[in-house]
């Protein structure tokens, strides 16, 4: 029939192929969790005494091979904290807070590479980056050696904030010139008073 011929025409077939959605290949995004060995046990079962005597199947179920993303992030955070911790009981120093925020930021960066339209997690990442920048700025100002060691161990590349450049307006320029003039007049009056005082002391 005529309808069947039109439906099977090469022009319509080409148009249908052109309008078909193209499947994009998902790029392999490198993760900061790739260096974790799959045979490593989960955090809750690492220190269990009888873990060495269990079956291989059970051990595999309790390893990172079957672990979720959340459990892997916990172990990675613990590893970063151990690098910069001052003592075994240190859980709240500035270095430990920087390590925990670094693990959180890297996890959110990987998530946003796969889901770039996730605005909520982007906001969380920016807040964590701002908080980490404040902690690093404090360490750089108070204990510079600790700041350098923390950045080196955690692989953080710290960049200085740009200098604040205020756009000069006409009102600001007039105000600045007036302040300079007032300061100069005050210095002149101060010098005259000091001169008169010395003259009086010399006469006495």
From TrEMBL:
Alphabetical list of InterPro entries matching this protein: Ribosomal_uS15, Ribosomal_uS15_bac-type, uS15_NS1_RNA-bd_sf, uS15_ribosomal
UniProt KW DNA repair keyword: no
Keywords, comma-separated and alphabetical: Mitochondrion, Ribonucleoprotein, Ribosomal protein, Transit peptide
SMART domains from the UniProt entry: Ribosomal_S15
GO molecular-function term, one example from the UniProt record: RNA binding
Subcellular location per the Swiss-Prot or TrEMBL entry: Mitochondrion
GO cellular component: mitochondrial small ribosomal subunit
Superkingdom, natural source: Eukaryota
A Pfam family: Ribosomal_S15
Entry keyword Ribosomal protein: yes
Protein's name in the database: Small ribosomal subunit protein uS15m
Species for this entry: Eubucco bourcierii
Lineage, broadest ranks: Eukaryota, Metazoa, Chordata, Craniata, Vertebrata
């Amino acid at each position: 029939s005529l309808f069947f011929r039109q439906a099977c025409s090469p022009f319509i077939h080409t148009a249908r192929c052109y309008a078909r959605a193209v499947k994009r290949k998902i790029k392999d995004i490198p993760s900061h969790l790739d260096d974790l060995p799959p045979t490593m046990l989960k955090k809750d079962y690492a220190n269990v005494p009888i873990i060495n005597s269990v079956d291989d199947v059970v051990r595999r179920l309790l390893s990172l091979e079957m672990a979720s993303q959340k459990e892997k992030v916990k172990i990675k955070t613990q590893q970063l904290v151990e690098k910069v911790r001052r003592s075994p009981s240190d859980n709240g120093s500035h270095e430990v807070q920087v390590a925990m925020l670094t693990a959180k930021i890297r996890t959110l960066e990987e998530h946003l590479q796969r889901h770039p339209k996730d605005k909520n997690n982007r906001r969380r990442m920016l807040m964590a980056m701002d908080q980490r920048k404040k902690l690093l700025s404090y360490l750089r100002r108070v204990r510079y050696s600790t700041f350098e060691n923390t950045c080196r161990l955690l692989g953080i590349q710290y960049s200085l904030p740009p200098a604040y450049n205020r756009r000069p307006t006409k009102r600001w320029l007039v105000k600045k010139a007036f302040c300079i003039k007032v300061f100069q007049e005050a210095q002149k009056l101060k010098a005259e008073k000091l001169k008169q005082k010395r003259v009086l002391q010399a006469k006495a």
